[in-house]
Amino acid sequence: MTEIINHMNEIAHSISAAVEEQGAATQEIAVNATEASRSTVEVTTSIESVAEAAENTRNTAEMVDDAAQQLHKNADSLRSQVATFLEEVRKRSAA
Q: What is the pTM of this model?
């Protein structure tokens, strides 16, 4: 009878140790899951920052393009005005 009780105590201790190990493993999994969640938030924030920077770059590029087009129009207008002016000077010099 004592032998059976001792054997049952051994089994109970083994079960208790296994439960403790599972608890520790579960705790470690929870810590890792929390860290993974934090990392996911950081990556998401970084991606949002990159997307915002890309949008700002696109907007700036559009403004530069608009300015270049306006500069081209102004240069054409100035070229035309200079040509007209020089033509008038030639006409007046010839007269």
A: 0.59
